[in-house]
Amino acid sequence: MLLNTDNMPLPSTSELKKSRYIKGHYTDVHGLPCIERIVCSVDETPEAIPTTIRGTIPEWITGNFLRNGPGKFEIGNNKFNHWFDGMALLHQFKIAAGQVTYKSRFLGSDCYMANNEHRRIVVSEFGTVAMPDPCKNFFQRFLSRFEMPGSSDNDNVSFVTYKGDYYVSTETNFMHKVDPETLETKEKVNWRKFIAVNGATAHPHTDPDGTTYNMGNSYTAKGAFYNIIRVPSTKMSENLKETLEGATVVCSIPSLDKTRPSYYHSFAMSKNYIVFIEQPIKIDLLKIVTGKLTGKGIKDAVYWNPELETIFHLINKQTGMLNSVKYYAKAMSTFHQINAWEEDGFLVMDICAADDGKAINNYLIQNMRKSGEALDEVYNTMCRVFPRRFVLPLSVNSKTPYKQNLNTRHDSSATAIRIAMDKVFCTHENLHSEELHKYGGLEFPQINYAKYNTKPYRYFYGCGFRHLVGDTLIKMDLEGHKMKVWEHPGLYPSEPVFVPSPDATEEDDGVILSVVITPNKDKSTFLLILDAKTFDELGRAEVPVNIPYGFHGTFYSSYLQKTFTESK
């Protein structure tokens, strides 16, 4: 029996096995260890420091492993309310010749500078509303509540690249260009300067030729729209001086509800299509507009409507045409997609999804700092996330039969049934065995992106969630739904990033990089390196500072960029 750091037994398979929603609970787990130090403020480490190597770091790994996430949760006497609100802290693990150095810097965003200058929270975030300036008189403070809320530039979600430049991003209209060597903030970039959108996701997709696609909302008198954005590659725009110059909106999709668009964190992409998933996580725009007046944050405007279906929209990347056929599924939520490709007249899409969409509002900092039964209650009321596959038939026309399964792939149990002229209802197949329930499902999925994105693939990697954050690393083999697991009680690994070896001949030739947090042991965070094929630990680089649990990262090296280009 596995024990947690308090010598309590870890959840059993039966406790974690997916169950129906009974009395507000999805699981019946007890004795979760407290992880409050995962969301504690830390100081930056702007100068590179050495790490202590345990085991062996393969000498062929040469490059920067970059990570992003919140690192400051209080400003003066003010405290942020939500995990997503913390000030962005950028991390760099520089790997060369079997050695690793570490450095970190807070993003020099306008909101970070303003907050520090005033020693209080002056810019509202996802779950925190900035209060009026106490130095103003009563009348001025009253009038300030009627001002339209501005967008934060606290880009604490991910590192992204456009035309070879590095940016940090969140889901507003602002990004920041950063130097991947020094982590210094170089430039603030506003999407609105280039195209008419009110924000963009932190998860763009890139084609082998360097063309990058993203999505962002726009709000007009006609209602909310979801926009597909295309940013040309460096080769296609050599005469354009600014990174986002040449960006265009290739397709705009009207929201089903004009004033309550769906929230989305990412989207799927195959060789020829963008797949936008309009899910029942809704955003009440009126509540956002009146947020200052009511004292409510964006978080309070986001809600789950289980009465709605999920809709898959297909957009042709080359023509920008929206497919007239809509693919429907039962209510579900998804934050991250795994992969998508076209084969034999179908678009196959693998995603991580749950049957409930309330989890986003559960990640209050006060929840993550709870202990005992109060912590168990937070976890048990959250629906688990599992990998699923949908198969969408691409050739639906007037001759396509109704009320029969259009999915003719012999190795697939997913269904796609035409129920109206332009409506196909889909059910998924599971990409896992019952064993995954033991590990609390899977999130933060990653693949060998350079070689297998938009193509058939075999392996993906992710975090198991027996806690509010990842507590295991998992390798999934789609041939037989076999699993390999790395786990150690009391250790909390972050998103696994796959790095292919220079001489790779097979899909899983390479390593997995993950930053492992140790909330119950001071200054013992480490960079973990696993053999991606065997999932055995090769080595770790121990960092003599504390690091909070972050969100997303990327690895860059010249040979990896060459591999991606050659995969075209």
From TrEMBL:
GO terms for molecular function: beta-carotene 15,15'-dioxygenase activity; carotenoid dioxygenase activity; metal ion binding. Binds 1 Fe(2+) ion per subunit. Fe cation binds at residues 203, 265, 336, 552. GO terms for cellular component: mitochondrion. Keywords: Iron, Metal-binding. Its cofactor is Fe(2+). GO terms for biological process: carotene catabolic process; retinal metabolic process. Belongs to the carotenoid oxygenase family. This is Beta-carotene oxygenase 2b. The lineage of its organism: Eukaryota, Metazoa, Chordata, Craniata, Vertebrata.
